[in-house]
């Protein structure tokens, strides 16, 4: 559902090539039924389906799993209707990610399906694979949180953080992160040859990052987060400054990251100074990570890159689908 959006189109691209998935219904608020190749000419000869404004009842009868590539505040009305038909859901919106409803209400609005928030499993496979395998309902992580959490998880889980100092996260995103809707600030002439920060330390992904870091740490963790918009279509690069306890050295830190991501096929630890670039992971489900170290300041500088539409949205959703159905998590993604 929401096939006309950027995340919906990316789901279509990956699912149309997935060896074990069959696309059965494409839904969007179109005025009348339209062949998908009229909306996306690249699907000609690849996907022979019509896009319709399906009811949740019809779509539930046609599918084993429904992807909600809908805006936040919309998913929370649709998800309960589909769950009633006992169908699996992967929701790409933010509606079911935050377990603390007061945080949700602070950044969005009053939740319309609060009883379902606990049911949704946070779909970051590198941390929650076992829970995802048993889940019926996945809250797929946000794009910024995906790259940021993967960059921080090994340090936090191994309790290396100097809790007297702040974690500082500086992230840059391409323009598809804002969705395919018309807004003046995302016009070509506003974005091209331009570079700006926005929502400085007030972005709606902050509570999601803090929630997951706090679960990993077993105590409350807060971050300073500044997102930026860069003139490119896809990709997020996050530079994360992690204050460390005094007894941690670069060798130990890199070894811990390698160990943490052993057997996690979509996270690659890079050799410094081979710092990751967004183009290295474009149109892939990889998250590449480099770890640098300032000994004098006891500071790790971790750089992560993802494609916001793949590991940050549709690719991660399909990785979750694979795990939910007992398939190899790499299916359709490598
Ligand atoms: N873009 C990213 O990088 C990214 C990354 C991670 C997560 N997400 C999340 O994924 C979701 C989709 O993002 P996107 O970037 O694909 O957004 P988008 O390009 O704006 O697409 C949203 C889709 O939802 C449909 N829609 C809009 N309002 C609706 C309503 N009231 N009722 C039903 N359908 C409605 C849209 O219109 P039509 O019905 O007209 O087709 C469109 O197909 C969002 O929740 C977003 O936060 C996005």
Walkthrough of the structure:
- This protein has helices at residues 6-15, 36-39, 56-62, 75-83, 101-107, 125-134, 143-157, 188-191, 206-217, 250-260, 278-281, 310-324; strands at residues 26-27, 34-35, 50-52, 65-68, 88-91, 121-122, 137-139, 167-173, 196-197, 223-229, 236-243, 267-269, 287-294, 299-306.
- Helix content is 32%, strand content 19%.
- By secondary structure, it is an alpha/beta fold.
- The protein is globular, with a radius of gyration of 20 Å.
- The longest helix has 15 residues, at 143-157.
- Strand 13 (287-294) and strand 14 form a beta hairpin.
- The mean pLDDT is 97.
- The chain starts with 5 loop residues before the first helix and ends in a 10-residue tail after the last helix.
- Helix 6 (125-134) packs parallel to helix 12.
- It has a 7-stranded mixed β-sheet.
- It binds NADP nicotinamide-adenine-dinucleotide phosphate.
- The site of NADP nicotinamide-adenine-dinucleotide phosphate has 27 residues, from helix 1 and helix 12.
Brief digest:
The protein is an alpha/beta fold and 334 residues long. The chain has helices spanning 6-15, 36-39, 56-62, 75-83, 101-107, 125-134, 143-157, 188-191, 206-217, 250-260, 278-281, 310-324; strands at 26-27, 34-35, 50-52, 65-68, 88-91, 121-122, 137-139, 167-173, 196-197, 223-229, 236-243, 267-269, 287-294, 299-306.
